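Q: What structure does this chain adopt?
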Amino acid sequence: MRQYLQQPLDWADAMGIGRSRMVAGEFGCIRTLDDCARYLDDVLDVLETAGVHWAFYAFREDGWDGMDYELGRSKVPWAYWRAAEQGLPDPLPRSPTPLFDVIRRRLQ
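A:
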């Protein structure tokens, strides 16, 4: 991850753009993947070490649960999809999960 994200950092350095003027505006992974927490942690470690700002992807989208890290890693129940089909609010309760904690601890 460090090597991959080094590319824009090198470009900014070469152009004389301060890293504090850079923003990683959208990143994430599908919450059900085995190494999603590690991926998020690795990306955030590189960005924060480099002094780059980041803005987290909007994880509560209507009708898609892929990056809603407060749901944990398990599949959502049918009630989630039924509400989406009916245009109703998502009925699932949210709570801290180990996956969301990767992001939450950096927001405090």
